[in-house]
Write a structure and sequence with these properties.
By secondary structure, the protein is of the alpha+beta class. The protein contains 5 helices and 5 strands.
């Protein structure tokens, strides 16, 4: 199993054991993890909660999503030719979509991971799905509305 983790992600102490148990129990092949944000900003915490729910819901559609922390079997990773290096953003959405299209079982693992407190500097709109699944479906490499409260990303 390959696991890809964003640099600002803090894994819980029980992450490896919980993930191993879930993989063995559910036979995961590709997916991502729910997220939580320990922020003083209610909008950021609510946004993370919303995105985790959105991610869980989307796994049952033709357009699954995943971000932040992904997992995929080596077999599935090779079958979809890894990450599409031509994408500047949303490569995490794309690889999950490609794995599902290739027939691999995609599941959002309910193992909450924490994203760094540095997100306290971002506006809540960055946590809302401003990039539609259409962008990943069609392999578009641009997305609008990504900005911090001070205008810099």
């Amino acid at each position: 199993m390959l696991v890809f983790i964003d640099a600002d992600t803090i894994l819980p102490k029980y992450f490896i054991q919980s993930f191993e148990n879930r993989v063995n129990e559910k036979h995961f092949q590709a997916g991502s993890f729910t997220q939580k944000m320990n922020s003083d900003n209610l909008a950021i915490r609510a946004g993370a909660h919303f995105m985790s729910g959105y991610m869980r819901l989307m796994q049952y559609t033709p357009w699954p999503i995943g971000f932040g922390c992904l997992y995929i079997t080596k077999e599935a990773f090779n079958a979809v030719d890894g990450f599409d290096e031509s994408l500047y953003i949303m490569e995490d959405y794309d690889i999950i979509l490609q794995a599902k299209r290739a027939g691999y079982k995609k599941i959002t693992a309910k193992i909450p991971i924490q994203v760094s407190k540095k997100l306290n500097n971002y506006s809540a709109d960055i946590l809302v799905p401003t990039c539609s699944p259409l962008a990943a479906r069609t392999r578009l490499s641009s997305c609008s509305n990504l900005q911090t409260t001070n205008g810099n990303l």
